[in-house]
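Student: Send me a single protein entry containing the residue sequence and its fold in token form, directly below this note:

Tutor:
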Amino acid sequence: MDTLALGSMLAVFAHRYGDLRRLKRAATYATMLAPVVLIAYVLVMGQGLTWVQLFKFPLLAILCCCLLIFAQTINVVRSLFSLSILRSMGKCSYALYVFHPYLLGFFNWKQTHLRGTVGFVLYFLVCFTAAWLSWHLYEKHFLRLKRYFQDLPKPKRQESLTVFGMPERKVEIGVSLE
């Protein structure tokens, strides 16, 4: 299953039912299988098996969906994900994604004396500093421009749509030709 489709189904479920509590039991069972899958993966990795590559990313996506479900339904996990350092990393995450390959090339790990944990920590600090500067000097100023765009009115709910056998919710899809 495509990982984007799995995330989309989770979003549809959350929108349809208002929360993810109904999925907590399934997420618990899926998470219990995680150590077994991890051990199996460690035993067969590096052997060039096609079926391992076929299942690796969907299983990782399922575990990430379980983590999202737990973040919505378990207070301890929710408060862990609400830590200010994680929220600030969330603001800088796109810049981290954009900058890290260029900074990795700059560091050129094979020719530097900084290897292992010290090199990784230094690399992370440089990447995070670049992302933080990008957020504060560039991105947040553009986000302030959103106030100049008016919100579109939300559509009235009338027409029925069914997704994966879930109960119907009426949604009006209306276009005014005035």
Notes: Residues 103 and 126 are 8 Å apart (CA to CA). The radius of gyration is 22 Å. The beta strands are 159-161, 169-171.
